[in-house]
């Protein structure tokens, strides 16, 4: 193998790291993402290292983003994510699970870790990625199972968008349907992991789940899953004339991109057959050191009819008691908003909510903070389903 230190960094499944400086013993990395990202700061870094029989010092430098948000976006005050890095450093050998690692030092703009010697390529990540290969394995695992796969349409780049539907065991006696969507934006991997966990849950572990129909769109932004930020229209802003400038969660009033149009048609078909009861659109929260970024959106006062608002409050209270995320009912939504949650309320007259999952903080059932893990994200799938069932199982 070449001794050129640059050869020790392989191309990752989603290239998002670049070398600032390197030697045989030290490598300094930073995110290979745009300096100004509409709506969100940089939150992800993925790198794959070639085998090496000596340990190395890996320095991660995280650039602050203090610029104002672009027009049409509503997160103007992203703090430097460097402070959260010690919570979200992971390493894995290919084919194995991610293991959380601790830094050996922290500094104002990042962290330093020791990369142990390894006889095989090793992947390093900030955050817990969900790659296209993971999604393909999930689809393979669901073949010939109870979930009905359908291609609801194609992305702007022509990729098919799969969705899954599971009818009630006794469709004529169903209590209604739930819809869950994930991955509208690059690097918001928790929704994919959560829905993966739900799709592979044994229904015997979810009493009364079979009384409802379930519709799941795991990866609305299929281009970002397969192409990274370079194919996420929110970053590339291929058509800034569109509402939201390419942000798929600002393209719902009306649905105006291939992905949101396909999702809208799919959900209307579900609703016409089995009335929808609730729509959850899953995202990952922003970077604020005074808050985990997790929570569940609710509509601002007076935005939706009184009875629906009362039902939304009752569900949100129960959800935040039962599901281990930050207890934060985020009074954010507007009825004429451009996101999926507002569209669901306008379209079906039901509760539509955005679920924000923290990038750097997990919680136990008593709301005590924990480090994030794959198990935490995956378990959120059946935990969310259980709360939906508990709330709607009685008339």
SSE map:
Blueprint: E1 9-10, E2 17-22, E3 26-31, E4 45-49, E5 56-61, E6 89-93, E7 99-100, E8 105-107, E9 110-115, E10 122-126, H1 132-142, E11 148-154, E12 160-166, E13 177-182, H2 190-199, E14 213-217, H3 222-227, H4 233-236, H5 258-273, E15 276-284, E16 295-299, H6 306-322, E17 329-333, H7 340-348, E18 351-357, E19 362-363, E20 369-370, H8 374-392
Parallel strand pairs: 3-5, 13-14, 13-15, 15-18, 16-17
Antiparallel strand pairs: 1-4, 2-3, 4-10, 5-9, 6-7, 6-10, 8-9, 11-12, 12-14, 16-18, 19-20
Helix pairs in contact: 2-8, 6-8
Question: Describe it for me?
Answer:
The protein has 395 residues and is of the alpha+beta class. Helix content is 23%, strand content 26%. It has an eight-stranded mixed β-sheet with strand order 11-12-14-13-15-18-16-17, sandwiched between helices. The chain has a five-stranded antiparallel β-sheet with strand order 1-4-10-6-7, with no helix packed on it. Helix 6 crosses helix 8. The longest helix has 19 residues. It is globular. It starts with 8 loop residues before the first strand and ends with a helix.
């Amino acid at each position: 193998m070449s001794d050129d230190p640059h050869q020790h960094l392989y191309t990752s499944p989603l290239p998002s790291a670049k070398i600032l400086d390197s030697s045989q013993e030290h490598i300094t990395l930073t995110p290979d993402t745009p300096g100004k990202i509409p709506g969100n700061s940089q939150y992800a870094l993925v790198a794959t290292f070639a085998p090496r029989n000596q340990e190395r010092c890996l320095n991660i430098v995280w650039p602050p983003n203090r610029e104002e948000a672009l027009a049409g976006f509503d997160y103007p005050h992203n703090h430097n994510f460097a402070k959260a890095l010690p919570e979200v450093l992971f390493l894995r050998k290919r084919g194995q699970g991610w293991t959380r690692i601790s830094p050996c030092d922290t500094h104002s703009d990042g962290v330093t870790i020791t990369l142990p010697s390894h006889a095989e390529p090793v992947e390093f990540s900030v955050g817990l990625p969900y790659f296209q290969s993971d999604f393909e394995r999930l689809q393979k695992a669901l073949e010939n199972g109870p979930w009905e796969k359908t291609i609801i349409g194609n992305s702007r780049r022509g990729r098919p968008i799969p969705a899954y539907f599971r009818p009630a065991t006794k469709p004529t006696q169903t209590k209604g349907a739930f819809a869950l969507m994930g991955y509208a934006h690059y690097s918001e991997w928790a929704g994919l992991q959560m829905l993966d966990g739900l799709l592979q849950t044994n229904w015997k572990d979810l009493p009364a789940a079979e009384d409802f129909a379930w519709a799941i769109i795991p990866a609305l932004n299929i281009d970002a899953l397969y192409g990274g930020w370079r194919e996420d229209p929110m970053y590339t802003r291929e058509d800034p004339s569109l509402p939201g400038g390419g942000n798929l969660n600002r393209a719902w009033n009306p649905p105006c991109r291939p992905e949101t149009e396909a999702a809208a048609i799919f959900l209307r078909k579900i609703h016409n057959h089995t009335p929808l009861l609730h729509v959850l659109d899953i995202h990952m929260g922003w970077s604020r050191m005074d808050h985990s970024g997790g929570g569940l959106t609710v509509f601002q006062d007076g935005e939706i009819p009184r009875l629906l608002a009362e039902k939304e409050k009752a569900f949100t209270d129960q959800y935040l008691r039962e599901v281990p995320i930050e207890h934060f009912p985020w009074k954010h939504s507007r009825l004429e908003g451009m996101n999926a949650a507002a569209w669901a309320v306008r379209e079906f007259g039901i509760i539509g909510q955005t679920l924000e999952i923290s990038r750097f903080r997990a919680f136990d059932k008593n709301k005590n903070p924990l480090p994030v893990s794959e198990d935490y994200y995956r378990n959120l799938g059946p935990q969310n389903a259980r709360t939906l069932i508990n709330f709607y199982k009685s008339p």
